[in-house]
Design brief:
CATH class of the largest domain: Mainly Beta
Shape: globular
CATH superfamily of the largest domain: Cupredoxins -  blue copper proteins
CATH topology of the largest domain: Immunoglobulin-like
Structural class: mainly beta
Low-confidence stretches: 1-42
Number of helices: 5
Strand content: 25-35%
Distance between the termini: 47 Å
């Protein structure tokens, strides 16, 4: 049965900060140490959820469908199912996830990991299986705002991928759900990139008459795939091929449907894609291992572990809470007014934050570790939350808490850093990956250590605890998971991180031109303090912003096989993680937007190859990128609520 819709009964951090003084605790607002992280009404109080009651799920490798002709082949479906996300004494949660149709037990959120090798292509059939046992389509788990520029299947062939016009405020869309999967960080041809307008509905028998069943680019890319690598796309699916002709790195896959990414990812559509081997990897045994593989024997101990960190809010029946009204933000009454009186979206909210931390699909898990070195691949898969991660002895210690162990960062999004970087904390915004080593060698057996989060419970604008940043609630979102040190089971032969010699970075060459991109926030014409969208755009010659919508003509057409600079100028009050498809770029520095202050170099964790970068408010962030595949791609903010409402632009390399 599809999940029951939940009424808008929660408050965002922005509205809590405005209303907490005037509302008594009996209204459902919960406070701990001055931080408000619970929501009101029927949602589950995060303080009642037992912590560290569930062992961390170490995500297995996704089973391969077949391998022949020099290509590893997968069939991966998207389904709805129930998963024990909360501790066992609480209800299961209806989620979506990826898995192999051949084995229903492989469906999980986050997904099992695709293991790939440099130089060996991977071909995936991504199948939309969001139907019930009778073949009827399943509606979304969350309210879908049909007033955005979105996939819009009800618009048919002419109205799909548009912003519909309404004469009155519509209710949420309840029809069949489109999906399209993007491999984030991949060097890939356009038809396999997961373009937001290349979506497709499930092959349900009850699709309403007149609905578009595929997005505007789907059929075009289907023809390209057939011509390029002989793939056939059946109804409700797409076949993508990844050449894996790039450096070893930590990639991930997730949904990328126009105007619905935040909802589809929040429902569970994400997973790791780990690329190994090639000239920019290290020989086996140098780094801690093994990682989960495809044919592992029972009882194997893993010393390389991927960690997908997310925030969610839950209802008492185990369902995931997601706001059903713009009233969640606190800047608009539940009744609006909306269409046709104002331009405020009735359901979409500028940022969404959960009040419970989830790792690898479980709330606040625990991981037994031996006194040895471990390699962790960390992914921030939250919708909007920026994480500042530390390992500490006391999870409730006053912030900033003293670190009990350092991180040794060895890699970022697309591969290794030039050299290992030791740090007490990791700054990781949405969609960023961090490749780290943690050395538990000197920690006594029986010791408990905690992974905590000192990032904010609202939009991130820079700073650190005590220096312009209010950290997350130490009783809820300020805790992530626990480590418990157990006896050593085998000798650690990996190289200590301080002695590692990492592969050199590939050269980019001098930059030949500069693209100037603006980051913007648009306010309502009727309520100037109410945000109605975020946008990317250009920067005029006089330094002012020129916001552009998703539908505007392509303005960025980078040359092929040429290094070019992208200046990302943030005219808003919060930081934005900006992601460019197809490329791994280099962060070269930052300077004040006004240009009057000194610049600063990239942080140590940004000195490798990246595909997502934090752009701080009132600053220009510079990156150098080199495109070498022609076609239609995108750049966008990876705060998913922003991406879904205009903060995304098409780009045309070689065009």
């Amino acid at each position: 049965m599809p999940e029951k819709r939940i009424a808008a009964n929660g408050l965002s951090r922005r509205s809590l900060l405005r209303t907490a003084v005037s509302m008594p605790l009996t209204s459902g607002i919960l406070a701990t140490g001055g931080n408000y992280t619970a929501v009101v009404g029927s949602t589950l109080d995060p303080r009642t959820i037992p912590k560290y009651a569930t062992r961390l799920a170490v995500l297995p490798a996704m089973p391969m469908w077949s391998s022949y002709g020099g290509i590893d082949r997968y069939v991966i479906g998207v389904r709805q199912f129930s998963q024990q996300v909360l501790p066992p004494n609480l209800p299961k949660t209806v989620v979506w996830g990826y898995g192999s149709p051949r084995n229903p037990a492989t469906f999980h959120t986050p997904a099992f990991t695709i293991e790939a090798q440099v130089g060996r292509p991977v071909r995936v059939m991504w199948a939309n299986q969001l139907v019930d046992a009778s073949g009827r389509f399943l509606p979304h788990l969350f309210p879908v705002d049909p007033t955005l520029h979105w996939a819009n299947p009800p618009g048919g062939g002419r109205g799909r991928d548009s912003r519909p016009v309404f004469s009155s405020t519509p209710g949420p869309y309840t029809g069949p759900v489109p999906i399209v999967t993007h491999l984030h960080g991949a060097h890939v041809t356009e038809e396999s990139d997961g373009y937001p307008e290349a979506w497709y509905l499930p092959p349900a028998w009850d699709i309403p008459v007149g609905y578009a069943t595929v997005g505007s680019y789907h059929d075009r890319y289907r023809a390209v795939a057939a011509d390029r690598f002989g793939a056939e796309w059946s109804q409700g699916s797409a076949v993508y091929q990844y050449a894996n002709d790039q450096s070893a790195g930590t990639l991930w896959f997730h949904d990328h449907t126009l105007g619905m990414t935040r909802l589809n990812v929040h429902a569970g559509l994400s997973g790791f894609y780990l690329l190994r081997g090639g000239a920019r990897d290290l020989p086996p045994g140098v780094l801690p291992g093994p990682a989960p593989g495809g044919d592992d024997r029972p009882g194997i101990r893993y010393h390389e572990i991927p960690l997908v960190v997310q925030d969610r809010s839950f209802n008492r029946d185990g369902s995931i809470f997601f706001p059903a009204s713009r009233a969640f933000t606190g800047d608009t009454p539940p009744t609006g007014p909306f269409i046709p009186v104002t331009d405020v979206p009735p359901i979409w909210n500028p940022d969404s934050f959960g009040n419970t931390m989830v790792v690898n699909g479980n709330t606040w898990p625990v991981l037994p570790v031996e006194p040895r070195r471990y390699r962790f691949r960390l992914l921030n898969a939250c919708n909007a939350r920026t994480l500042i991660l530390k390992i500490v002895a006391n999870p409730l210690a006053a912030r900033p808490a003293p670190a009990a162990l350092p991180w040794w960062q060895i890699g970022a999004d697309g591969g290794f850093l030039p050299r290992p970087a030791e740090t007490d904390q990791l700054l990781c915004t949405t969609a960023e990956r961090v490749d780290v080593i943690v050395d538990f060698t000197s920690v006594a057996v029986g010791t408990e250590l905690f992974l905590i989060n000192e990032g904010p419970d609202g939009p991130f604008s820079g700073g650190s605890p005590g220096k312009g940043l209010t950290p997350a609630d130490s009783a809820t979102t300020g805790q992530v998971m626990k480590f418990v040190v157990t006896p050593l089971a085998s000798r650690d032969t990996s190289v200590p991180p301080a002695r590692l010699s990492l592969p050199p970075l590939p050269p980019l060459g001098p930059s030949r031109r500069t693209w100037r991109i603006s980051l913007n926030e648009q306010h309502s014409t009727s309520s100037p303090k109410v945000t109605v969208s975020h946008l990317l755009g250009a920067v005029a010659a006089d330094g002012t912003a020129k916001p552009l919508s998703w539908a505007a003509e392509v303005t960025e057409r980078p040359a092929l096989r040429t290094t070019e600079t992208w200046e990302l100028a943030n005219f808003t009050g919060e930081a934005h993680p900006i992601h460019l498809h197809q490329v791994q770029f280099r962060v070269t520095g930052r300077q004040p937007l006004a240009g009057s202050g000194p610049g600063r170099p990239p942080e140590s964790g940004e000195t490798g190859v990246k595909d997502t970068v934090i752009v701080y408010p009132n600053e220009i962030t510079r990156i150098d990128a080199r495109y070498d595949i022609p076609g239609r791609y995108v750049m966008h903010c990876h705060i998913l609520d922003h991406e879904d409402n205009e903060m995304m632009r098409p780009i045309q390399p070689g065009g």
